[in-house]
Amino acid sequence: MKIGLLGHGVVGRGVREIIDAGATWEVRELEVKRILVKDEIEMVDPRCTLDFEEILNDPEIEIVAECMGGLEPAHTFARKALEKGKYVVTSNKKMLATYCEDLFKTAVANGVTVHYEASCGGGIPWMAALDRIRRVDDIESFRGIFNGTTNYILERMKREGTDFADMLKEAQNLGYAERDPSDDIDGHDVKYKVALSVVKAFDRLVDINDITTFGIRTIRKADLEYCAANGYTCKLIGTGSDYGDYVSACVIPMFLKADDVFSNIPLNFNVIESQSKTLGAASFVGQGAGSLPTAHAVVQNIIDIWKNQDPEINDKFVRPVDNQVHKGVFYIRTAKQAAFTPLIDRHVSETAFVTKKISLVEAAAAAAAADDETLFIAEVAQ
């Protein structure tokens, strides 16, 4: 089966290396025929091209593996490939989470499918696990540490007793964080992965802008000192729950109890957990990023298509996000507390307090009303 590879960066190069190496008989059935690159300096392989049309119009190429990143031209190229009757495999969580309704509809209309194991969890076979669980069980909810960069920062802050800025710089120096770390530290990376997990777990399509999202940009040493003093560990968590007519979905730092398995996930590792009636809680731990782990997931999807093992035939239903049902107790630090006055249970410092049990919607509304760029919020496990 011949493949057109879009992008030859960190992930794309890994895909090419795995397929060229042909370590198993399944992989030896695959061939990267053409590789789309952005400029002449990247033309390091005779298969490289600067012209997407060469891939699009090649009748031998049945699968397009999109590893470019970004919204455009990745979305346009993926859509054109589907319209041409080619299968699409993508590692691009931001693009797919933004345009999944459009791409799924286009795929159905042209008798092909979209596959996205590598877009969520890197090398963790999260999407494949959800497929297997759903053969027996309806998945009720999921939660996860979906982002290794923020997990690394929080873990190092806890161990070293240092502040956020220092650990962010260290993560950037080690290559865990991008030069512009906004997607990671503001929770957007996790938001995209939550949206795609909702698709796979519940067959629901949601608007990513409706997913309540708080990151760790504003976390400070004092917040983690309170967290540790009370027996908690802070992790950035993405969650989703299916209620039929609507979905609850959010991204928020959480103060977790010491006996929670998520509390002990080290450094840049990820853990994702599904909850279903007969299986209960099923957790999956591993590297959430990196060239070869993510490329491994791309190649797994390509083999799925070749073997017709992941047909993605389920209908996807658009559902609203409603976090009114998500209730909890929240730790909040802000210099502007007036908006929270009726919600406060007790103060823990001059600027920090713990709320009564309230809905996430109430907490988010008060946070927006406070209009404090330094505000930090975390849900406290009960």
Stretches with pLDDT under 50, minimum 5 residues: none
Query: How large, in whole angstroms, is the Cα Rg?
Result: 22 Å
State the secondary-structure class: alpha/beta
Kindly state the percentage of residues in helix.
25-40%
Percentage of β-strand residues: 25-35%
Give me the count of strands. 19
Mean pLDDT: 94
Quickly count the helices. 12
Kindly, what is the distance between the CA atoms of the first and last residues, rounded to a whole number of angstroms?
Answer: 52 Å
> What coarse outline follows from CA principal-axis ratios?
globular
Largest β-sheet summary = 11 strands, mixed
Helices, strands, pairings?
Blueprint: E1 2-6, H1 10-21, E2 31-36, E3 48-49, H2 52-56, E4 61-66, H3 74-83, E5 87-90, H4 93-109, E6 114-115, H5 126-134, E7 139-145, H6 148-160, H7 164-173, H8 182-185, H9 188-202, E8 204-205, E9 212-213, H10 221-229, E10 232-242, E11 247-257, E12 269-276, E13 280-287, H11 291-307, E14 317-318, E15 327-333, E16 344-347, E17 352-355, E18 358-359, H12 360-370, E19 376-380
Parallel strand pairs: 1-2, 1-4, 2-3, 4-5, 5-6, 8-14, 9-11, 11-19
Antiparallel strand pairs: 7-10, 7-12, 10-11, 12-13, 15-17, 15-18, 15-19, 16-17
